[in-house]
Amino acid sequence: MAFVLAGGRGSRLHELTSSRVKPAVYFGGKSRIIDFALSNALNSGIRKIALATQYKAHSLIRHCQRGWNFFRAERNEFLDILPASQRYNEQTWYRGTVDAVAQNIDIIDSYDVDYIVILAGDHIYKMDYEVMIRQHVETGAEVTVGCLTVDRHEASAFGCMAVDEGDRITSFLEKPADPPGLPGDPDHTLVSMGIYVFSWKYLRERLLADIEDEGSSHDFGNDMIPDIVRTGHAQAHRFGDSCVRAPGAPAYWRDVGTVDAFWRANIDLTTFDPELDLWDTDWPIWTYSELTPPAKFIHDEKDRRGSAVSSMIAGGCIVSGTEIRESLLFTQCHTNSYSSLERVVALPRVYVSRHARLTDVVVNRGVHIPEGLVVGEDPEEDAKWFRVTPGGVTLITQDMLDRRAASL
User: Fold this and answer.
1) Domain for residue 126, yes or no?
2) Using one digit for the tens of pLDDT, what is the confidence trace for 218-244?
3) Which residues in the chain come in under a pLDDT of 50?
4) Which of 16, 13, 10, 8 is nearest to 399 (CA)?
5) Mean pLDDT of all residues in the chain?
6) Same domain, 322 and 221
7) Domain that holds residue 33
8) Where do the Nucleotidyl transferase domain residues begin and end (predicted)?
9) Which residues are annotated as a binding site?
């Protein structure tokens, strides 16, 4: 079975997670971040899935109920949603990633599974978990850890591991100042993806021990994995061995945990040959699809031409006399005449009034851009009203616009 951890707030996304948990944030024109972990599980042949939620989970739960309701219990398949429910006492929610699993031991017992895959629900990637599970069984490891290979100077932001020639993990360090290099490749480091495979019998014993450990922070990366490395057999699984991609394409994995990273990953999809292939019908990204009409482009006059170049426009959008370039519009967006959008990520149901000019912008769901608004040309002016990131991207929400309107 797959156990997906989807309770993290994602505070570095600022207002994008003010009303929704990070895994419920929109991505790619019609999906949510959570759809990637769930689709990977489904496409890998895993049809027993549990989803642990905590922070502002309504949007996530509603999405899963609408878009992931096709499992059939009579075929012994399901997606169970497990909100934090104070199962120990009235004060204790999920205290960490380990505790989120531990509080549901009785429920997992009822699933009658041999192996469990622990997944983070907030990353963008395509991976065949079956390859990793097979490696876990064949090596006889007590835990197998999904790993990325990154430049050593970038590894300090991750849980890092040293491995021997057979990829057995010899040490696990959480965000070290001096990350270890790889055997024969000192310029690169293996870092954890937050993906773990265990036999359920073994993990169950470790969870019960963690519950009684008052000194534990109840976290896989901080506590359980380093302890298994010291006392048992922990095996590294390299993402490149199970990444789903076109022949010759690079292994694609993104943590869209900042506004800059979120904007960049979405804008990258509009390029000629994006590294993330959303058009692959052999490994589809399943999601909830609204019933919408096709996108429509109207008007063909000078300075009033409905057009989109190097862009992705979702269903239900109306591009009315607007020039759009290198942008991604989610469902039901409506733009009006004499406006222009360049490198814009507009979440669902954004309305852009006439004569607006937006450049390098993320627009939150349901925002009404007023007539004549110009954003992305004067960073100092933008910062008075909106959130301008270190990378020069401007995040616009309706509350920001309302405060601006009240001040003018």
Assistant:
1) yes
2) 989 889 999 999 999 999 999 999 999
3) none
4) 16
5) 94
6) no
7) 2-270
8) 2-270
9) 94, 159, 174-175, 192
